[in-house]
Amino acid sequence: MPAAMPPALLLDGTARIGGAPLFGPVRLEAAAGRITCLLGPSGVGKTTLLRLVAGTDEVTRFEGTIAASDGAPLAGRVALMAQGADLLPWLDVTANVTLGARLRGTRPDAARARDILARTGLSDHAHKRPHALSGGQRQRAALARTLMEDRPLVLLDEPFSALDAGTRAQMQELGAHHLLGRTVLMVTHDPGEAARMGHAIHILTAGGIETVAPPAAPVPRPVDDPETLAVQGRLLARLRAPA
User: Fold this and answer.
1) If we measure between CA atoms, which residue out of 27, 28, 59 comes closest to residue 186?
2) Residue 2: band (very low, low, confident or very high) from pLDDT cuts 50, 70, 90
3) Rounded distance, CA 216 to CA 225, Å?
4) pLDDT tens profile 149-170
5) Beta pairing, strands 78-81 & 153-157
6) How crowded is residue 201: how many other Cβ atoms within 10 Å of its Cβ?
7) 9-28 pLDDT per residue, tens
8) Do residues 203 and 214 make contact, with C-beta atoms less than 8 angstroms apart?
9) pTM, rounded to two decimals
10) Domain boundaries defined on the chain
11) Segment holding 21, helix H or strand E
12) Which CATH number, 2.70.50.60, 1.10.3720.10, 3.40.50.300, 3.30.390.50, labels domain 1-77+151-243?
């Protein structure tokens, strides 16, 4: 958990690809130290939005503002956990988790890596390569790598979508616990995931942003909580409705 409260994240503007509008104008704020969930139909630009925030999009033209509430630059303060585990198959778990430091040409903090592997239940798998891990273990390794970066702003792009329902629920709980105190913006196609994990829930559409009130219970919410199930149902109905 970060030592100080992280900033909020604000995106306000319009995105285009090759002159064609993708989304916007939209104004989206991810509150400081909270998990903000973003849903929406495929192709509306959710992943692109995350890449714009992370500074990894070289195709989309964005007009507007992407900023942290404290006014400091975003560079060096954002961690992105992409779709799927996205582990390098020729490296073991420890090397994958410490990959960021290696790419920056710095010595990985071995003690911190061991601590994070222990907290994510991967100590016994530290020297295994990805092919020897289960789907849930690979997702834990990807989460561990994100935590190893220790950034105050965390972007999650459908991080648990490839998992079976039981493992996904476990990873949602693990992620909510270990990301506590960070500003998290999570893209998901799963209304149940948003209802369990979101302190705030938004739907991105071609016309802008719609906000859905989250359940009152603390995050992560029980899978059988009646209010959580009701919000899940409302989200699914909205996502199925004609645009």
Assistant:
1) 28
2) low
3) 10
4) 889 999 999 988 878 888 888 8
5) parallel
6) 24
7) 999 999 999 888 999 899 99
8) no
9) 0.91
10) 1-77+151-243, 89-150
11) strand 20-30
12) 3.40.50.300
